[in-house]
Design the sequence.
């Protein structure tokens, strides 16, 4: 069992398949990184959403998601996208 991240809004896009262990590490890194960066309310809500994907809370292999499930807002989408990209960059640097 494992988890998938999909993008069903883009036709013929491939899903990202991850083991449960890799998923746990990825979510943990995103939450740690995002917690350090989040300042605005919508940024905090995005990180709380990712934290809710903790397999310790919901069970192994049950935290996959589609990108359209992330609580983006139309008004803040560009800012949220840039914030999430900054979170990912910071999470990547934490592994170096």
Sequence:
């Amino acid at each position: 069992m494992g988890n998938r991240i999909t993008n069903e809004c883009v036709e013929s896009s491939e899903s990202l398949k991850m083991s449960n262990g890799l998923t746990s590490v990825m979510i943990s890194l995103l939450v740690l990184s995002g917690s350090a960066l989040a300042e605005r309310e919508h940024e905090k809500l995005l990180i709380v959403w990712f934290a809710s994907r903790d397999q310790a809370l919901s069970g192994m292999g049950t935290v996959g998601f589609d990108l359209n499930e992330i609580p983006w807002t139309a008004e803040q989408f560009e800012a949220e996208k840039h914030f999430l990209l900054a979170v990912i960059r910071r999470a990547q640097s934490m592994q170096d």
Notes: The two ends are 28 Å apart (CA to CA). The longest strand covers residues 2-6. DSSP finds four helices and three strands in the chain.
